Amino acid sequence: MLSHTAFVLLSYGAAAAVLGAVFVWLFVDRAATMAELDRLEQAGLKRRSAATDGKDR
Length: 57
Fold this sequence. Notes:
This protein has 57 residues and is mainly α. The chain has a domain at 16-42. 68% of the residues lie in helices and 0% in strands. The chain contains 1 helix and no strands. The protein has one helix at residues 4-42. The radius of gyration is 22 Å and the shape is rod-shaped. The mean pLDDT is 89.
């Protein structure tokens, strides 16, 4: 049976591993999304937020 200290350390380690995996996933997903946006902009599509007329909708 685990001691209390070992349980706490394993729990913190598991939480840190999950948070680390989430951050890695976020950075990988952001890179993929930015690459897709660049590809679409090169194909001639623009984002609505990139309007240049200065008017609000």
